[in-house]
Design a protein that fits this description.
23% strand; Alpha-Beta Plaits; 2 domains; 5-stranded antiparallel sheet; 305 residues
Length: 305
């Protein structure tokens, strides 16, 4: 379930949003969509909101059981020991942001504030492991309830070095949509010749992942398909800790037009394979994860006094 509230946004944007969500009051939209569709909606909102404001609230794992995003507002989301809170607008704080010293330099922060920031980043950085499995799925569509997995790719990383990889095409009954084939290069003939039953692949994947945490870009999308597949074939629920490079990039990098994997790779100078296949996407995600960790390390160093 998601709730989207738009204020002072173009009518065209509101009309576009009604393709996925129901407008139950002026500027208030509700609906139930997949994580990938939700992220695409938010990208459209950011691109076309102009001088308007937008608030998106949606279900998420964690203690709060929800998450939210804000665009174009003076209310600021902040992280407080892993819990997301809203910092209400303060006239003095807003003035401070816009003010400069008489010598023309921007207002700075006290040493105590810098130390607190350094400690916060240092503690936050410790949450991200050096040993993990990068995971990516290709599917016939966006719905984990009605669409199917067609490829699973994974790379095992120890101390940020690739030590093993996993890749399998999934044998499915339905035909692969033309747009999916065009994007991935996977067609019905490849599936018939090289595909394996999904239950066999899942057993191998579970063994491959073991106890390691899983890293992925928009990992909730992949996790949704896997949870449904695990349940269908009687495997225990996926319990690995999941790290989402999409959420991490939104936290560390501001001002991006969108946070798609390819867009972030291009913006950060990361080489990537233009073929949209699971294993190549895992490689790109791994490079992105490394860049994001570097940004966190840099933030820690710059905050120190």
């Amino acid at each position: 379930m998601i709730v989207l509230h738009l204020t002072d946004c173009p009518i065209g944007l509101r009309g576009s949003i009604t393709k996925w969500l129901m407008e139950i009051a002026s500027g208030v939209f509700v609906g139930k969509v997949s994580a990938r569709v939700r992220d695409e909606i938010w990208v459209q909102v950011q691109e076309h909101c102009r001088n308007g404001r937008a608030v998106l609230v949606f279900n998420a794992s964690g203690e709060q059981r929800l998450d939210f995003r804000i665009h174009g507002d003076t209310w600021e989301p902040i992280d407080f020991d892993g819990i997301k809170l809203i910092l209400r607008p303060s006239a003095s704080r807003l003035r401070a942001k816009q003010s400069v010293r008489t010598d023309g330099n921007k207002l700075g922060f006290s040493n105590a504030s810098k130390l607190r920031t350094a400690k916060k980043f240092s503690e936050f950085r410790k949450r991200f492991p050096e040993d993990y499995v990068i995971l990516d799925l290709e599917t016939t569509g966006l719905s984990s309830d009605t669409d199917e997995i067609i490829e699973i790719g994974a790379i095992k990383m120890l101390r940020h070095e690739a030590v093993d990889s996993f890749n399998a095409l999934v044998l499915i009954d339905q035909s692969i949509p033309a747009d999916v084939s065009a994007m991935t290069g996977i067609d019905d003939l490849m599936i018939r010749e090289s595909g394996k039953p999904l239950d066999t692949i899942l057993a191998e994947l579970i063994h491959f992942i073991g106890e390691l945490p899983v890293v992925g870009h928009n990992i909730d999308f992949d996790k949704g398909f896997l949870l449904n597949a695990y349940a269908k074939y009687g495997f225990p629920p996926m319990r690995s800790r999941c790290i989402d490079t999409l959420s991490l990039a939104k936290r560390l990098i501001r001002g991006c037009e969108n946070y798609k994997l390819v867009s972030l790779a291009e913006g950060l100078g990361i080489t990537y394979d233009k073929r949209h296949r699971s294993l190549s996407d895992c490689e790109t995600t791994g490079r992105l994860y490394g860049k994001l960790l570097d940004l966190m390390d840099s933030s820690c160093e710059n905050a120190e006094v």
